[in-house]
């Protein structure tokens, strides 16, 4: 795997996404059935790509922003992350085509970016 590089995949989703609004409006039983289907599909995706997964990652919670004015509560579209290994950026991106995050769940997208070396390290 020496030719493999690391890529960070971030899962994005917003509450004002029309698909999220439709998801939230589903009857509870139907939403739970879709959640069960989505979780099974996510586990199947992990099983299929387990050789490429460097860090399974997971969902992320509430956000704090730290800057010149200190620490403040904020929000963003980040909902989770995974780290994968692939020979190229294109190959890493292809791992997420049809991912349950947006094909079953109402997530917006998955963005994939290379993890670059630290300059001077």
UniProtKB/TrEMBL annotation:
InterPro entries xref list: Dimeric_a/b-barrel
Protein name, as recorded: YCII-related domain-containing protein
Q: What is the lineage of its organism?
A: Bacteria, Pseudomonadati, Pseudomonadota, Betaproteobacteria, Burkholderiales
């Amino acid at each position: 795997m020496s030719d493999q590089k690391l890529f960070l995949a971030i899962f994005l989703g917003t509450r004002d996404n029309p698909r999220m609004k439709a998801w939230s409006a589903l009857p509870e039983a139907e939403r739970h059935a879709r959640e069960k289907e989505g979780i099974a599909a996510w586990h199947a995706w992990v099983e299929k790509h387990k050789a490429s997964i460097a860090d399974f990652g997971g969902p992320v919670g509430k956000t704090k922003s730290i800057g010149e004015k200190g620490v403040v509560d904020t929000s963003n579209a980040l909902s989770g992350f995974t780290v994968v290994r692939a020979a190229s950026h294109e190959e890493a991106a292809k791992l997420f085509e049809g991912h349950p995050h947006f094909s079953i769940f109402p997530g917006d997208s998955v963005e994939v970016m290379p993890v670059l070396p630290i300059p001077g390290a």
